[in-house]
Amino acid sequence: MSVDCQFCGTSVILPESGAIVLSNKTKESTFHLPVHHEDENAIIHNYDSHSQLLDSLHSLLQNNNSNQWVHVINKESRQSFPISIDHLYERLKQPELTSIIHNGDFTSHLQPIVDISNNDIYGYESLLRTKEREVNPGELFSLAHRTGLHSMLDQKARRSAVQAKSKLIPTGQKIFINFLPSTIYVPEYCLKHTFQIVEEFNIDPADLVFEVVETEKITDVNHLKSIFDTYKSSGMKVALDDVGTGYSTLEMLSLLQPDFVKIDRSYIQNCHRISSHQDFLHEVMARADQFNIKVLAEGIETKEEWEWLQSIGVHYGQGYYLGRPQETPKKEIILPS
């Protein structure tokens, strides 16, 4: 099994048998792996299998050691790496899902984004899907958070999206790619991996739009702005997702000034007949116009919603009415009658 660096997604091998180093201060009254070495600072324990290590980690967690870190030693290579006890435990407990992330066993499905003024395809959103085994993306991202693999998953998802762009989407059409701000610690350094992928696949940076995923809860607006600025300085576009819910308030538009805002689907549903939805959408349009921000309505499911959004001048639309995510994307839009 591979594991990754907590911060940059770099893979290292978790040996089937090896040793782990614990602090001598760790509560370990029920930890029964054989001792290899002990001194005043640390204890080295041998393990012979992943299942044996899993059982022993379970005993540590029962003694409230979830925030403790250990070093895993590969005796053959004599290399070691640090990892928190709870992350290591979760990876060993769900090896199949962990392996999907490590191996990058997923692909990108593409959902069309349509220019409301002329019904042409403006671009696509890249949505992560697993290849061999069908796994709900929410489950995959939940596991990534529990195991500390979110940096790796985020990087590989971005690579899959850029690769899909190079193969399936012509130059001039955008691809919207989700990203997790929590995996980007120092934008100038952490985003180098993304910029290298763009160069590798020879993609025009102007065709890439990076959007904050809906599950993120932003607490540091300045940090997010620095991420946006780094993307923009490389010629890429940025989008603020789910405006109207959670952290994505109208005030964020003036603070972050993204290139696009995506309106939460809860305001799009029945927008043609619910006055409170209409009031909010008019306000978004007015605020976005002040900063030259393009507005994208997601979750469009009916002709009536589409036509009402068209009537108020919303720029772009996305939803099942226009097309579902597909591995091979739709090349033109024929609207249902």
UniProtKB/TrEMBL annotation:
Residues 90-337 form the EAL domain. PROSITE patterns: EAL (PS50883). It comes from the Bacteria. It comes from Halobacillus seohaensis. PANTHER family: BLUE LIGHT- AND TEMPERATURE-REGULATED ANTIREPRESSOR BLUF, CYCLIC DI-GMP PHOSPHODIESTERASE PDEF. This is EAL domain-containing protein.
